[in-house]
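I'll show a record.
***
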Amino acid sequence: MDETIANQPREEIKAEVINLSGGIIDTVESERVYITQGGANRIVASEVELLQGGAATIHGETVHVERGVAIAVRGGEVSLEDSNAGAVVADGTSMTGSRVGVVVAGQVEMENSNTVILLARDVHGSVETVLDTRGALLAGLVSGICVGLVLSVFKMLSRRS
């Protein structure tokens, strides 16, 4: 079943192939999803292609976002071109001209892209990060020590009262 949707507000759509052009959907569950200049709150599909659109969460085996925005992306292979994302968790990630807050992946290929935190086994390309794997571990350790000290001080002050 192939369902093409244009400017039709919908709560939830389930079909084998979904083509959305210029509309917004709450939840999409399908084998293949193609969204152009539209958006979805939640996408679950084997293959996702988002062109000039947005999504809150995307879960798919193969995800391609071009000139789009996503808050959270989870997939086997994730490709971002001139896009922005809050977090990406994938086996493999390819980024071209994109910005991502947190990337957790087995293999990352980056070109003219940057991240705040990058946790990856293999990284190829020019990398611009605020925190790399070692920096993230150090930041976590320092944060843990600071929180522990603050809690200890509050505990000592509450005993005196």
Observations:
- Helices lie at 133-160.
